[in-house]
Amino acid sequence: MYMLGGGGGDGDVQLYEVKAFEEDFRSWFVGQKVQRDGRLLFVTPMDPLYLILPYLMKSGKEGKFQPVEQMVMDEEFPACTKLLSCTRSLASMHHIADEKEVGNLKFHRYSQEKTMAWLKKKVEKTAMVLKKKNISVGEGIKSSTYLRVKMESDSSHEDYLCYAHGLISEYICKDLSKDLRRHLQLPELTNQKETEPPSKKRKLSDKPVEAGEDYTKFNSETFARKPPKKMTAAQKNLAKVDKSGMKTMSSFFSPKVKAEKK
């Protein structure tokens, strides 16, 4: 979710992203109070161009300069026009669009080239922060939950760029994310299904399920069976009793044979 803040005496309006961190059966101490439902809201400043970009891309298909108020319109979400009230919106529009000024009016047209350059800077800056904070990325992230002997990050610059590209891709469309990956000259992503555990593959597949283990080995002579359990004292005494002439337990439950009438 997103919200607009500011707009007071200085007139500085800022866009914020709101994320909720929630876990079941948790509560938090906030000052001298207890947050009972266990949910925390994180409010982070955000560049409004990320939300304006889809509208410019849509209007850019017409290939002509238009007033920005005419491009950022949505019948299903009329409140999108409030994005233009952000302080950074109109001042940063040149990062993703060509500008033309006629008299006192400005007109804009979506630019793929400028957008790629703008997103590239975003990715590079994010990668630089990740590296500076020694965040585990790439192959090193698999063991980040364990104690590592080598504390310095062993990830390459390409690993940081790939990870940063993934973070930025959360705010842009899929096609634009692919174009950005090619623009950054990053390797293509591997098929996720190829890296899934075999057990998960079988669950997701429609093919006949094959046994994951050879159970015929239990029939072989070389298979070592478990030794019999030790007998208790009562079982040992019962084994010493002379059972000759005694009926078996099953004989008490067998059906009685009817005598034939003469």
Quick synopsis:
By secondary structure, this protein is of the alpha+beta class. The chain is built from eight helices and seven strands.
How would you explain this protein's 3D organization?
The chain folds into 3 domains: 46 residues, no CATH class; 63 residues, no CATH class; 80 residues, no CATH class. The protein is 31% helix and 15% strand. It has 8 helices and 7 strands, in the order E-E-E-E-E-H-H-H-E-E-H-H-H-H-H. The strands form 3 sheets. A 3-stranded antiparallel sheet has the order 1-2-5, with no helix packed on it. It has a two-stranded antiparallel ribbon with strand order 3-4.
List keywords for this structure.
8 helices; three-stranded antiparallel β-sheet; elongated; single chain; 262 residues; alpha+beta; two-stranded antiparallel ribbon
Strand order of the largest sheet: 1-2-5
**Count of helix runs:** 8
Beta-strand share of residues: 15-25%
Classification by helices and strands: alpha+beta
What helical percentage do the residues reach? 25-40%
Morphology call: elongated
Q: What is the first-to-last residue Cα distance? A: 96 Å
Largest sheet descriptor: 3 strands, antiparallel
Average residue-wise pLDDT:
79
Number of domains: 3
> What is the CA-based Rg, rounded?
35 Å
Unreliable runs:
143-151, 192-206
Give the ordered list of helices and strands: EEEEEHHHEEHHHHH
How many β strands by DSSP? Answer: 7
Oligomer: single chain
Topology record:
Elements: E1 2-6, E2 13-22, E3 28-30, E4 33-35, E5 39-45, H1 49-60, H2 68-71, H3 87-91, E6 97-102, E7 105-110, H4 112-132, H5 157-169, H6 174-183, H7 198-204, H8 233-240
Antiparallel strand pairs: 1-2, 2-5, 3-4, 6-7
